[in-house]
Amino acid sequence: MSSLTDYLLVSALLFSIGLAGALTRRNAILVLIGIELMLNAANLNFLAFWRYGPNPAALTGVLFAIFSISIAAAEAAVGLGIILAAHRHFKTTDVNQMNALKG
Amino acid sequence: MTVSFFILAALTIAGTVAAMSLRNLVHCVLALTLGFAGLAALYLQLGAQFVGFTQILVYVGAVAILAMFAIMMTQRAGAVAQPVFTPSRMPGWIAGGMIASAVFAVLAWAIHSSAALPKTLPPQALPSQADAGVRAIGNALMHRFVLPLEIMGLLLTAALIGAVLVAMQEQQEMP
Q1: Nearest CB neighbour to B20, from listed A5, A9, A21
Q2: Helix H segments across A91-102?
Q3: Residues of B in contact with A29 (CB under 8 A)
């Protein structure tokens, strides 16, 4: 069984990868995917702290992770809908070329 | 660090790195499903079966397919994938990579220097199969967490309607 710090390190690495992708990629869909990766890193933290915490029978970490996954799914649906609408308007998904809020 | 944990962590990290750095967007999403599946296996290894299978259902099954649909609807047919690493974009890559590395360095330093983290499993260890199973999660959702559950249902309904409204074709563009 690996220790809590291993899981936390993997989670930190996952968060950094998602952050680097969200900051550097130009495609709006990949920026959204980077944000999803950061949310997943947070979920891994919740579960690791639940498993190694003093009271795993309370299931608090598991339920928090479940609610977090549902919020991430709703966010992905709305974000991809916004990207589709913006693509219809700007004819591109490059975030560098979407530079006007009022078309 | 056990072997299975190392393999799963390497799989997850490799999948996500590929998803953030590949040139072809479809390949990015396929690598992303690999990363999500590895993460689900990590959840299973932590003893959270329900969350692991929820992760597979929601992320591998829904979010990745949704991203794939969005990519296919926004890419022009026959479009050539633009190279990701070009000299003109190097400053952006260096800046983004440095910011992400700084964040990771701070997090890793905090993890390693924290004295409050338990190094081993607590004595009562993993709740038994009956405790962490679906029955216990359902009981918790129906008793202690019933208000968050209702709010989540409301949020998902609002997100469903909102996504349809935002992505709907505007009528005045029709001839």
Answers
A1: A21
A2: none
A3: 25, 67, 70-71, 74
DSSP string across B3-65: HHHHHHHHHHHHHHHHHHH-SSHHHHHHHHHHHHHHHHHHHHHTT-HHHHHHHIIIIIIIIHH
pLDDT digits (tens, 9 = 90+) for A54-63: 777 788 889 9
Closest residue to B108, CB basis, from A9, A23, A82:
A9
User: Does B72 share its domain with B3?
Assistant: yes
Q: CA of B146 to nearest chain A CA: how many angstroms apart?
A: 11
Phi, psi of B76 (to 5 degrees): -75, 150
Task: Please list every residue in chain B whose beta carbon sits closer than 8 Å to the beta carbon of residue A43.
Answer: 43, 51, 55
Among B166, B170, B172, B173, pick the best mutation site for testing chain A contact (most A Cβ within 10 A): B166
Across residues B43-66, what is the average pLDDT? 91
- For chain B, the domain total comes to 2
Express each pLDDT in B125-148 by its tens digit: 555 544 567 888 888 899 999 999
- Pick from B38, B57, B76: which residue ends a domain? B76
Q: Does A47 contact B48 at a Cβ distance shorter than 8 Å?
A: yes
- pTM to 2 decimal places: 0.87
- pLDDT (0 to 100) of residue B30: 93
B36, B55, B76 — which closes off a domain? B76
CATH class of A4-90: mainly alpha
